[in-house]
Specification:
The complex is a heterodimer of chains A (about 400) and B (about 350).
Chain A lengths: L15 H6 L1 H33 L30 H33 L5 H15 L3 H15 L7 E4 L2 E4 L2 E4 L1 E2 L3 H31 L5 H19 L6 E2 L2 E3 L2 E3 L2 E3 L1 H28 L2 H9 L4 H31 L11 H12 L2 H30 L5
Antiparallel strand pairs in A: 1-2, 2-3, 3-8, 4-5, 6-7
Helix pairs in contact in A: 3-8, 3-11, 4-8, 5-8, 6-7, 8-10, 9-10, 10-12, 11-12
Chain B lengths: L1 H23 L2 H8 L2 E6 L7 E2 L5 E2 L1 H14 L5 E6 L4 H6 L5 E2 L7 H6 L2 E3 L4 E3 L1 E6 L13 E5 L4 H12 L4 E5 L3 H9 L5 E5 H11 L6 E3 L7 E3 L2 E3 L3 H20 L6 H7 L3 H6 L6 H5 L5 H8 L3 H13 L22
Parallel strand pairs in B: 1-4, 1-5, 9-10, 9-11
Antiparallel strand pairs in B: 2-3, 6-14, 7-13, 8-11, 8-12
The chains are: A alpha+beta (about 400), B alpha/beta (about 350).
The complex binds glutathione.
Family (chain B): Belongs to the bacterial solute-binding protein 3 family.
Keywords (chain B): Signal, Transport
InterPro entries (chain B): Bact_solute-bind_prot3 (IPR051455), SBP_3_CS (IPR018313), Solute-binding_3/MltF_N (IPR001638)
């Protein structure tokens, strides 16, 4: 076309060909075609799958969710028995996944931070030990580590009949660890409420203290005050609830230890395995975060006469956090996703329960679609939370 | 970027079309074209299916696949094996990754009707039992209240277990591990008091995997019916017929006393019309199945009859007598549909 490009608004002379030559129109057209093709392909895959399943006489749909599950699950945080339905079984699995992932995230952050800081220690031995820890556990596949811990725990401890009792009421056996727990009582509900109230109070006191420090420069012993408020309120609730002292003590009865709280070898293997493995990555993230803070910051703190330990806590770590949060988020996501390996050592996580469900009902596609969307949901939630946290920690430019 | 998206979408469409075309072809045609039978077996259950020291698969379940290959190709070795855990097996069959699943699999309503599968025969009549260390001093399953039980997921075993304890008003703690090596290791290390599965599986675990088999006993109670047999996917009736009759031929050969050893002699000299039909001397059966007339002859010649397969695998390796699996003429349940 030798005609010059139409000026915008010049409607008269626009033919179809000109239209197609218009950059903007073309851009939209490409997008429409691309999206159309994707939708078509998606629709085709879905309908094709449904058609094939029907041809093979494989039943489809999510109706199986309210059928009786008929299998038992060893660790449940909610009421569950073989008479419950598949939906409840999957819920049990989900909660077990969340339990081990959350605990793992907390523990790996603490342990990782310690080793990350230790890798920069001026003490040669501490530095080397931390390096050995990180390099060892980071380079062994996490699945093997799970197998290792799972092989170790049952064989390292005696049969329940000869349980070790390192502390009164605490039993170590090949079936895991047993802890004494208080018998259920109303006082504990009261204490939970008191704990929540304490947290709210602490939040406001902290706000006030910060304001005062900003205004007058007077520091407030927040940590001490916080502990005081929390312990005080919870203790008061305990006393008000009648100070119950009944404990459920674990003791051998028949085949097994009965009573108390059981931490199973499967749970321990998964928690230790995931924590140790991920903590090595966290350590590296923390180390690089600290190293990303320019040395001048240390020197500046030094010249103000701030002690090194306080400088680390108040000057360096807050700045390194900004560098560390995005990669840290990745590690948390990895840990959550790696928790799906728990199935290999018999911990009843979401994948384990889904596998069983899919096998007993034959609804493979449905069961997989359920657990995939749940993992996606968990990952998105973690990301959202960490993004919010990242925003909060980000440098506020003044 | 946009071009890439379009290309990706196009590729997906092509893949989808290809998938549908594959579906339309019959399984048997596919098997003939590739030249072997893909057989899903256990990851390692001596007597049923396990790789021997030379890496060759052996067992009563393996022999069903070998019989099918002998029927189709005249060569019992035209089989490739896919070891599968209990939880993987049905998906492998549904997706067409394997042609037969011959892996101590119990025939049940759900599996037959809802999973799109067809059970073509029962090559081992079994029932679920309990294996327990002698040291625990337990002599009956009714004493198991409160026990920790090792069990594999995706099995009828874990369902029967829950049913049994519920019916008896007893409680138990399950330890559910998919891989048989991990699961038995957990049992032998004392993580569980009891291991439960099909009685044949228990015999296999006790005699082949325990350090000292005498330290373990199988409790007398059998808590379920476990008819184990080969399975194929629905959709190719010709193929399911081949497997059904390949297995039936093994049993019928035993009924007629036709063995690996005497099959040539029988073929040449037998005047029994039933044997003549089975071995293709009087033709018709092969044609009916779309196979060579020597199909059953090849099975018996290369794999043996049912009794020989049982003897070589189950009795020799696990020390289990024929029991329910004796021929019906000997008071057992093995009763072949007549090849005629
Ligand atoms: N017959 C039962 C149980 C079959 C089964 O998987 N048994 C276990 C225990 S003997 C097994 O063979 N495991 C071996 C493996 O996972 O490779 C069924 O069909 O559900």
């Amino acid at each position: 076309m030798s005609k010059p490009q139409n000026a915008p608004g010049d409607v008269r002379s626009k033919g179809l060909v000109d239209y197609l030559n218009d950059e903007n129109v073309r851009a939209v057209l490409y997008q429409v075609v691309a999206i159309g093709l994707i939708v078509l392909a998606g629709w085709y895959l879905v309908s094709n799958t449904l058609y094939n399943l029907e041809q093979q006489n494989i039943s489809t749909g999510y109706g199986f969710l309210d059928l009786e599950a008929s299998f038992e699950i060893s660790e449940t945080m909610i009421d569950y028995s073989a008479q419950s339905d598949y939906a409840t079984a999957l819920m049990v699995g989900l909660l077990n996944t969340v339990k081990v992932s959350l605990l793992g995230i907390i523990l790996c952050t603490i342990i990782g931070t310690i080793f990350g800081v230790a890798r920069l220690s001026s003490n040669w031995i501490v530095r080397k030990l931390a390096t050995v820890y990180v390099e060892t556990f980071r380079n062994i596949p996490v699945l093997l580590q799970l197998f290792f811990w799972y092989a170790l725990i049952p064989s390292a401890f005696p049969h329940p009949r000869d349980a070790l009792e390192p502390l009164p009421g605490v039993l170590l056996t090949s079936r895991g660890m047993y802890l004494p727990v208080p018998e259920p009582d109303n006082a504990y509900t009261l204490m939970t409420i008191a704990a929540v109230i304490a947290c709210v109070v602490i939040y406001f006191v902290r706000k006030w203290a910060k304001k005062r420090q900003d205004a007058t420069g007077q520091p407030f012993p927040m940590l001490l005050a916080g502990i005081g408020i929390f312990v005080g309120l919870v203790l008061a609730a305990y006393l008000a609830g009648g100070a119950p002292t009944d404990m459920s003590m674990p003791a051998l009865k028949g085949f097994n230890i009965q009573g108390g709280y059981n931490i199973s070898p499967e749970f321990m293997a998964v928690l230790i395995g995931l924590t140790v493995y991920t903590s090595t990555y966290v350590a590296e993230v923390v180390r690089s975060g600290i190293q990303a803070v320019p040395n001048g910051q240390w020197e500046a703190a030094d010249s103000l006469g701030i002690r090194r330990s306080i400088a680390l806590r108040k000057v360096i770590l807050p700045q390194s956090m900004r560098v560390a949060i995005p990669p840290l988020t990745n590690q948390y996501l990895n840990l959550t996703k790696n928790s799906s390996l728990a199935v290999a050592v018999g911990y009843p996580d979401l994948v384990s329960v889904s596998n069983t469900t899919m096998n007993q009902t034959g609804q493979a596609i449905e069961a997989i679609s359920i657990f995939m969307s749940i993992y996606l949901g968990l990952s998105l939630l973690t990301s959202l939370f960490m993004n919010w946290f990242n925003k909060k920690m980000a440098l506020v430019e003044r | 970027m946009k071009i890439q998206t379009i290309l990706a979408a196009g590729a997906m469409t092509v893949a989808a079309v290809a998938a549908q075309n594959a579906q339309a072809g019959a399984v048997l045609d596919g098997i003939k074209a590739k030249g072997f039978v893909q057989c899903g077996v256990n990851t390692g259950l001596p007597g049923f299916s396990a790789a021997n020291a030379e890496g060759k698969w052996e067992g009563i379940d393996v022999d069903v696949c070998r019989a099918a290959a002998a029927a189709v190709f005249g060569d019992a070795n035209a089989v490739q094996y896919t070891p599968l855990t209990a939880a993987q097996r049905f998906t492998a069959l549904q997706s067409g990754e394997i042609d037969i699943l011959s892996r101590n699999t119990t025939a049940t309503t759900t599996r037959d009707a809802k999973l799109g599968l067809t059970f073509v025969g029962i090559n081992y009549y079994d029932g679920q039992g309990f294996l327990i260390p002698k040291a625990l001093g337990v002599s009956s399953a009714t004493e198991l209240d409160g026990a920790t039980v090792c069990v594999e997921p995706g099995t009828t075993t874990e369902l029967n277990l829950a049913d049994y304890f519920r019916a008896k008003g007893m409680s138990f703690e399950p330890v559910v591990i998919e891989n048989i090596n991990e699961a038995t290791a957990a049992f032998f290390s004392g993580r569980c008091d009891v291991y439960t599965t099909d009685a044949s599986g228990l015999a296999s675990i006790r005699t082949q995997m325990a350090e000292n088999p005498a330290d373990y006993v199988i409790l007398p109670e059998i808590i379920s019916k476990e008819p184990l047999g080969p399975v194929v996917a629905q959709g190719d009736e010709q193929w399911s017929d081949v497997v059904r009759w390949a297995f039936a031929a093994m049993v019928e050969a035993e009924e007629y006393g036709v063995t690996m050893e005497n099959v040539d002699d029988m073929k040449a000299n037998s005047t029994n019309p039933g044997i003549q039909r089975l071995l293709g001397v009087s033709p018709g059966m092969g044609e009916a199945l779309g196979l060579d007339e020597a199909w059953a002859y090849n099975i018996v010649k290369q794999v043996g009859n049912y009794g020989e397969s049982y003897e070589k695998n189950v009795t020799a390796k696990l020390g289990l007598e024929r029991g329910l699996n004796a021929l019906w003429t000997d008071g057992g349940l093995q009763y072949a549909w007549p090849v005629r």
